[in-house]
Amino acid sequence: MSFTVEPGLYVAPDKAEIELTLLAYDLEERNERRIRLGPTAASAKDAEEKENAKTITHQVPREFLGIGVRLEDDIYVTADGHENMTSSVPTEITDVEAMCAEEPLLPSGQGATTRVGRRDGVDPDRHEVEDACRDHENVEQLVVGEAPG
After folding, report:
1. Where are the domains of the chain?
2. pTM
3. CA distance 149 to 140
């Protein structure tokens, strides 16, 4: 099984002020509330607490208006453990900027689609995908690996 973890931060281009709710969040307490009250009543209680909580107004610096940042990890989980398939992706600003300045490995533009898969139906690991992308230009469909015997 694999899944993607995608935390992100997006700042609206036209919202120079944001209102933040000052409300403590206790996950264990909220889960217990859902069990005790049921999801509908618990959600109503959450909304009531948020409505009655204090707020602060925060001025967004002009240079942050309209930006978005998303950190994405693809995690492969087996009975024996897990692997972060995106652990080699750069996260330091200078490394990200250097990567963005490189020529793309895959084609881009309108109508360009890429599919990377294996003939045996197993999801390729990140090394197979990286090797396949590096070795093929103008990829429309790419299948790596050997056909099952």
Report:
1. 17-59, 103-149
2. 0.41
3. 26
